[in-house]
Each structure stands twice: as C-alpha cells, then as structure tokens.
Here is the input.
Amino acid sequence: MGYTVAVVGATGAVGAQMIKMLEESTLPIDKIRYLASARSAGKSLKFKDQDITIEETTETAFEGVDIALFSA
Here is the structure.
C-alpha cells in the first residue's frame, strides 16, 4: 500500500528539490500531487516519467492526502 503525497510549493527551488528526493526515495507513493499558486495551476511537472498537473493550493486540495510536504 502506498501513500498519496502532496508537495506544496512544487514550482519553487525547494519544492523541486523535494520532488527530486521523493523520486529517489523508497517511500511507497501511489499518487503525487503538486500544489502551488493559482498562477502555476494547470501547468505540469514530471514525477519520474509521469506528467503531473499542478493544482492550486486550496482548503480542499488536501482531501485524500496522507503526507503533505510544505516548502517556503
């Protein structure tokens, strides 16, 4: 069983480093969600070989998330 992981601030330098670390980790991830500002929503970033659409960070964005990582 894997986790649903959210990366808040995925488009920034710290978020990019967190994504890289998650790609290299052995953490069982079933689903990853990238959260950022409305300005970045709709764009995409890679996770391993998958395109992940960036979502706007809202109150409801964390529904179903097991682990959330926040960057500044």
Remarks:
- The chain has one domain: 3-55.
- Strands lie at 3-8, 29-36, 44-47, 50-56, 67-70.
